[in-house]
Amino acid sequence: MPKKQIKLLGTNFEYKVMHVLESFNWLVFRSAGSHSCSDLIAVKDGTALFVQCKYSFTPVLSKSEKDGLAYISSMSPDFRSYAVCRGGDPYGLKIYQVKYVRNEPKDKMEVVMQPTTIDRMITP
Q1: Which whole number is the average pLDDT over 81-86?
Q2: Is pTM, for the whole model, over 0.70?
Q3: How many domains does the structure of the chain reveal?
């Protein structure tokens, strides 16, 4: 498949996720071509969601994307970061919350991606 066609599939998926969030009354901004850790930023009732969209069936994030999302979510309890890919919920999405968790034996912070649901994601 040509690179341009693959990019279009990813862009269309970003719009799909954007429309799902908008259907729950989130104000959503798309950062097209920014190459930042989040493709979408959604805001509602003082809460901000930072979302990295992946057209694949598994959320394969680069180290810098994971670290960036985890860092953002650590800045404020009102900031939450997610990786979203294609999947099996009613909206055709698989959602993972990305955050730092302390690894007690090593006594250091590690980035984890925890599966979650659209209902947990959209609740401010």
Answers
A1: 95
A2: yes
A3: 1
